[in-house]
Description:
The complex is a heterodimer.
Chain A: H1 18-22, E1 38-44, E2 50-56, H2 58-61, E3 66-71, H3 72-78, E4 107-108, E5 114-120, H4 123-130, E6 134-139, H5 146-150, E7 165-174, H6 177-183, E8 186-194, E9 206-212, E10 217-222, H7 227-238, E11 245-248, H8 264-276, E12 280-283, H9 286-292, E13 299-307, E14 313-323, H10 335-341, E15 350-358, H11 374-390, H12 394-401, H13 423-433, H14 436-448, E16 452-467, E17 478-484, E18 490-494, H15 503-515, E19 522-525, H16 542-569, E20 576-579, E21 582-585, E22 593-594, H17 595-605, H18 610-613, E23 615-620, E24 625-638, E25 645-655, H19 662-681, E26 712-716, H20 734-751, H21 765-772
Chain B: E1 7-9, H1 14-24, E2 28-31, H2 37-42, E3 50-53, E4 63-65, E5 69-73, H3 78-82, H4 85-90, H5 92-97, H6 104-109, H7 112-118, H8 124-132, E6 135-140, E7 144-149, H9 150-153, E8 154-156, E9 159-160, E10 167-174, E11 181-188, E12 195-206, E13 209-218, E14 225-226, H10 228-234, H11 241-253, H12 265-290
Parallel strand pairs in B: 1-3, 2-3
Antiparallel strand pairs in B: 4-5, 5-10, 6-7, 6-10, 8-9, 11-12, 12-13, 13-14
Helix pairs in contact in B: 10-11, 11-12
Amino acid sequence: MTSAVKRYVGTAVNRVEDLRILTGTGRYVDDVLPTGTLHAAFVRSQVAHGRIVKVDVEGARGAQGVIAVFTGQEIEDLVLGPGAHGLGSDSLMPSPQPAYTVLCTDKVRLVGDPIVMIVAESRHLAEDACELVQVDIDQLPAVATAAAALDPSSPLIFDDLAENVIKRAAPVKFGDVEKVFASADRVISAHIDMHRHQNVPMEGRGIVADFDPSTGDLTVTTGTRRLHLVRTILAERLGLDPARVHVRAGDIGGAFGSKFASSREELSVALASKVLGRPVKWTEDRSENLLFSGQAREESWDVEAAVSNEGDILGLRVAMIRDSGAYPGVGPLLDRLFERILPGPYKIQAYSFESISVITNKATYIAYRAPWAGETFLRERMFDLAARELGLEPLQVRMRNVVKRDEPPFDMITGQSLVSVTNRESLERITELVDFAEFRRLQTQARAEGRLVGVGVATYVEASPGPRPKDGTPLGAEQAWIRLDADGTVVLTTGQMPHGQSIQTALSQIVADEMGVTLEQVRVEYGDTDTAPAGATGGSRSASFAGGAALVASRELRQNVLNAAAEILEASPEDLDIVRGMVGVKGVPGSAISLAQLVQSAAPATSSDAESRFESVINYTGGEGGWSSGTHCAIVEIDAETGATKVNRWIVVDDCGVVINPAVVNGQIRGAVAQAIGAVLLEHSVYDDEGQFLTGSFMDYLLPTADDIPEIEIHHVESVLLDADVNFRGIGEGGMVVGPSALCGAIEDALSHLGVRVYEQYLPPTRILELMGTIEPERRP
Amino acid sequence: MKLSPFDYLVPDSVDAAIEMLAQYGEDGRLLAGGQSLLPMMAFRLAAPATLIDLNRLTELTHISAESDAIRVGAMVRERAAERSGALLTGVPLLARALPLIGHEAIRTRGTIGGSLSHCDPASELPAVAVAVAATMTARSQARGERVIAAEDFFVTHYTNALEADELLTHVAFPLTDPGTGVAFEEMARRHGDFGMVGVAILLHIAVGTIDHARVVLTGVADGPFRSEAAEHVLIGADPGSDCFAAAANAAREAIDPPSDLHASAAYRREVAGILVRRGLEHALADALGHE
């Protein structure tokens, strides 16, 4: 197959999205305001755990501007029970699944649990009426920690479960674990903690639901990543024909793993519109977002590493406890991925893994950029701890253990093929970019002056998409629709739901190159269940899958265009080419006609399905795939007196296959590194022993600002390409997979001569001085 | 996060404002820059029945140099103060402290009078006011003008010495003696955040001996905390690392700081001492720079 010269792929073209987003003319959920829109607000639980004794809404019903009040029980009487799809991610949970209602009817399970929905003429009036609702709750002791959840004397959060556990993953073993541990020179043990922190998209959740009683159509604008799933869920719960449910999204101000499908609030709002026959809107405010849209990460591990005195990491034993929060979320779904890729790009010979996910009176565990990243954190932490115990350079321990592509093992001990991993190359590149010997000399000098500097290195692999399984199972499925319009515009319709990834731009670049048209002649459409294929954006799969689908679709359309042009130009298709939207005989410039002319002249001359000639539906299954991977290096200086950490340098060597748009790729890396720095130095979602949420505003939940982020130096290694055509790999999550490990490693390195070892991820100034022994540790929530 | 309903009044003169205050008393909240009050109202932590908006009181927006002080209207924006040559030259401690308040956008709305009246124990301006012995002038319809010393103005957390019918009209910052070294040190989680702990320092040296010192800490008590213990160590001593270390220790021992999400009590105590020592070093360098 011939293909046009690549003009756009690999180039930092300006983003198609820039004009509307950078000029403030993007269209987010809250920008949608149909005539006569009503506004919803929720009465939420002030306590973490309790039984609802009485809900008195009489005062609210009579309040100014209030159109309707829905108690939890009234909603249960109006909706159908949860179907196969639940509210989205919860349906993926293993059984037994606990039963719970849309709004609370009998119990509240965390601060912020919604109890009553008020629909009023304005959000102000709805919130005023919320204050008139009286809720009597018989408080139960809060289950605020994983330890409390596992304590048999704690009350049950769900009466229909036997314990406060949502899943126990059966222990699995790979290799001869007992033998490797018995024969190792030493075994290093650690308890490692990762703290609760959370997604903070600029735009919270939101929905505008508009039910038309005259036609029975429900039109919904919402900011979620799986529009078709929202359609299915709303149809299921509201008893509507899915064909009558139209779900749309415009611009989405970020998700980072949240906004999976629908939610208890969004379902309630759709119901209100159906009952009232008027448009109803709910825009999640920042308080609600921090309190109730979901939180992430809270996991801890008991780890043992079998190591040789020379620095071989031979075996790992890992037992995990995950605080999954109050309601079913995605946490336990990650176990399998966690388990399979934990050994990473290393020659680990034996490994065992077990996991337990507990239920607590805290926000539900949801996916946050690289939700499985704990596997990299605990593994890279153990590598650093082992290196320090053995007196070796942590980087060298990694070099010693990382696989070589031309030497066995070729698979992880878990069976994952390591074909295409380039961690050895990215580690080597780091040694070229950072002079470690010189750094150690400067570090010694700095220590003599009482200054604390440190360097940390960490490496990761990410299955985005990962190599195709050896048994030939396809990696996935992604649909794309492509058509050539009468005006010569190539229109690609994707099932992706972009929310900050520049997907319109990236796909336009691929289509323009493959078709031989200019970027301006391509339009990428998405975001409407009536006009776009089903799909979702997530898992760093857009580049691989949507990119691959766009490439294959473009090639098919291109061939159809060449065939049609061949008839008109009386030439063989092989002799034709498309250049800048003109199709003509190669080497005969005067022969070319525009694609618009082609569509107009070809249509009548051909068969009855003329239209379909310039229209294709492609199902792309992911090709051969390949690993994303990379190595990050952080260099820090810590103020020895105040414990403040300053990140002085951050070097990234990444492998995301063929780069579609360097500016977009680098932007993804920078954003993820910023979140990684935030995760270690600033961000912590805190509950007290009573389950009260203490970080409910930006006064207390601290996000990194530009001032906290150094210049990020980005380099790429040459990828090992596995597929003949599609070698775009995910880059969105890598910085959050590995960044916290690199930074914690650097902090430990700066303090290591004081005997400090780091077994946690959250290292604010107070904690640094505690680790240094300057101040006594304080028990904190 | 929508504000509760309230009545909104916009006086166009100080006389009109104090008349409204006399009428509404405790129910009338004053709105200056709104950088603290409005978020509290959005969270419904504050729900005043009546909001009296001071933003049209142009008579309170002047900075004027007097013989022994700079007089600053209560509605002078922090950003305007930061750009006032007379103020920064006359009261150099303000030049150190003002840039630490939030960010430029916040300082563009926030006012000198609002920040002082709000009495957040972590905020910078109350510490400056105490360190330089500023005086606050308040006016009420019933009793006319009253002058309150800074040391008496900051009562406790979020509580000032004003009566319910009184309006803070202006603040007089005494001119700092020439040759005085100043410093404002602060440790915040991020640039622009309230400090976990901070310190305002004034240091004057005569013939090799410290003859005037002010050490006022933020974030360690229920308001700006003047460390007389540290000042006692300093007065009469030779400036230098020994006496600064002793002053730092004295400051640490005299405080019982709070613990919160951003810093433990032990951290605040430890770092208070560090900042006192650093502040004294910077103030000394500043003082020597004047010679």
